[in-house]
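input
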Amino acid sequence: MKKLVLLAVAQVAKGTPGTPVPGTNAILCRGFTPQPIEGQVAERNLIKGAKGNYGGIFHGEHRVFEFEVELAGSGAAGTAPKFSPFLLGSATSETITAVTSAAYQPTDGVGSYITLLGYLDGVLFRMTDALGTVSWTLNSEEIPVQKFTFTGTYEAMTDVTLPTGMVYTGFTKPLTVGKVNTPTFTLDGLALTVKSFGMDLGNQVSWRNWIGNSGARNPDRKPTASGVFELTSVATKDWGEACRLGTEMPLVLEHGTIAGNICRLAAPKLQINAKPSITDDNGTVLLSCSFDVKPNAGNDELVWTFK
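output
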């Protein structure tokens, strides 16, 4: 399982596969285990005068890759991070400000199509015309990660030689989440003591195989977030009332302190979408909340900035 390599590159268009190469397009990732095939079985349900199973027909064949990439900057402010093709493939726009930042936020488009090659000890899993979604997890005392899920065109596995010459330059060493490395976390203007926080872009990516059209599609998104933090006084924030009233709360999170490795997440409107719950963590009272992430004018419900 350790003889595993992932290569990926953005395509110029759907139906035009890219050709990722080890020296340029190797992805430093974790949690990646390619599967032989995805799809469904149409049961035949035949009547033949006897009990028994009469089988089915496999259809809608496609491929899904799931993997995690450490959340870190590019190493140089104003330079896109090496994982930026996956953000673009998850239907975000990219705004580069020279020597300053690279920013990503949702768009109404489907996203850039991606070609991915997964090599597993001499077996190649190839996927083209792939679209994806992403979620971010920042747990205190752990490495922050981005989990990507991409869905694309199926191709039969082939036996190949494991590639060599992979170059992972540009994947910056991450910082663990904590007080020093994560200097800013405010929700509704309140600086909270946070155990964990996560956000999911929530692209509704699926595979469709209809007459005249097949492929990955991304017709909608439903971003959500979740957090676990120390319960505040009622005077500071009445979380029950915030839930009851549907209070919309801005979020600002900043991880990293040195230019080139600062990751900033801003969202204008988080709204609690289920009843909060209180738990005991070794004597500390924690509040767990889940949120809908809502836009202002549209396509502005969150912005990830790497600076």
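quick obs: The mean pLDDT is 97.
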